[in-house]
Amino acid sequence: MEELVPKFLAAEADLLQTGTTSALESLAVTAYVERVVQDYQDLQSRGLSVSGVPTLNSLEVQKVEAGERNVVISLYGCYDISTTQMLDGAGQDVLVQSAGGRSSVIVWVNDAEGDFKIQELEPWSGASFC
Fold it and tell me: Helices in the chain by DSSP H: which ranges?
């Protein structure tokens, strides 16, 4: 997981910056890749672009669940967007970063598509631990 997550974040950032899906397809499940492609298209239609790569720090395993067909791993982490920007057509950053750009997230990883891949990355609904 320690290698998967940084590669995933870089591939997701690459897709959001260039529209290239190949790197993310090897690191995230198909449904997640399709959502990020839609996000990229939405940004493009609004004249926005993304620069930089977020990081995920303090990654800890919450739970490992073994099912009949796959294994699902839940991880907690601190998602840091302080090194990223969302730029408008004039090159101005339109992101409002609060709390230093860090937020608590939960990441689900599964092996349903043969290899361990990111299934989802969502904000943590509980109190922030970042």
Answer: 4-18, 22-25, 30-45
Cβ-contact 117, 29 below 8 angstroms: yes
- Judged by DSSP in three states, 91 sits in coil
Answer for the pair 56, 77: CB distance below 8 angstroms, yes or no. yes
Distances (CA, A) of 57 to 48, 74, 76, 81, 89: 27, 15, 9, 11, 31
7-20 pLDDT per residue, tens: 999 999 999 999 99
Tell me the HSE value of 54 on the side-chain side, using a 13 A CA sphere. Answer: 24
Q: What is the CATH number of domain 4-123?
A: 3.10.450.240
Q: Domain residue spans in the chain?
A: 4-123
What is the average pLDDT across 85-91? 90
Q: CA 115, CA 85: separation in Å to the nearest integer?
A: 31
